[in-house]
Amino acid sequence: MPETRREELKLYFDYKSPYAYLAKDPAFELPRRFRVELRWLPFLLRIKGKGERSIYSEYKARYSYMDARRWANRRGGFKIMGPLKVYDSTPSLIGALYTQRVGLFRAYTDEVYARFFERALEIDRAEEIAATVDRLGGSGSDYLEFAAGEGRPSLERCLEEAADDHIFGVPIFVFRGEPFWGQDRMGLLEERLEQAGLKES
After folding, report:
1. What is the pLDDT of residue 27?
2. Domains, the chain, ranges and CATH?
3. How far is CA 130 from CA 74, 115, 142, in A?
4. Could you identify which of 126, 139, 151, 169 might form a hypothetical disulfide with 94, taking C-beta atoms 3.0 to 4.6 angstroms apart as the criterion?
5. CB of 139 closer than 8 Å to CB of 133
6. Distance between CA atoms of residues 13 and 23, nearest Å
7. Would the pTM count as exceeding 0.90?
């Protein structure tokens, strides 16, 4: 008997977002619990650096990391350290697109999130992303070739799709055109998936 068709569920993410990090593991579980095809789409957060944002934005940034650590502690505790600079995560997001093609995406995503929030990985340096791919059993040189060629246009297409979906932050799930922003909205998303008759029996 053929498998029931799975519906597309989009997830926009960026490796420099602590809240996208918190959403990662529960998101990977969704296709096991619901008849959905989870599509991970890179989204490049554009964050102002110190001196470019208001004092209120500074307060918000500090609060966000404190809040993210509280959520992490509820799940046994894992490191979420605030970055020491503003990152252009383009190399790591192109790495996500590359590893999706070669079957290493889950391992890569686990590694990049964990090491970035331990301050052990510079996600704006293509050579460090290549070394990560090598360490996971892939080809760092193939990643670098992809990054220098098709990778950036592939990322741009994701960003164009994000504009069409009116994406403004991460993590944002999109189901049947309806957005759910934040890992703390996943309960509402799961209710919607269940209402749509997509819960696995």
Report:
1. 98
2. 7-195 (3.40.30.10)
3. 33, 14, 8
4. 151
5. yes
6. 9
7. yes
